[in-house]
Specification:
It contains five helices and no strands. It is mostly helical. The two termini are 24 Å apart.
Amino acid sequence: MSKRDDLIVKYAADLKDKCGVTADMDLLTKVTVGLGPSIYNADSSTVSGSDEKELATVKNNYLIKKLGLSDGDALDKAIDSVIETYGKSNRTKYRAVVYYLLCKHFGKESIYS
């Protein structure tokens, strides 16, 4: 298996073990591929749930630009919900997992079709 495939397996395990979600492997793979080389960098591969600047980046670059959602309280609430689901005390929140959960939350799987 390639390094990317290994990471996708790790992300699926995180979804199951930490979020109680069985991953749609096709969608998880597409979300991971969409992140490009950032998944291989220790800093950019994770999301800090307590860093406002980081959460703003998730909102602006992913929810608004990638998924085409309109800015508003619903986006902030969705991010908070996903961080809560992943576990606020969990130090390592993989970006691919957070983006996957947000994509599912908003029903935007068609973006990756």
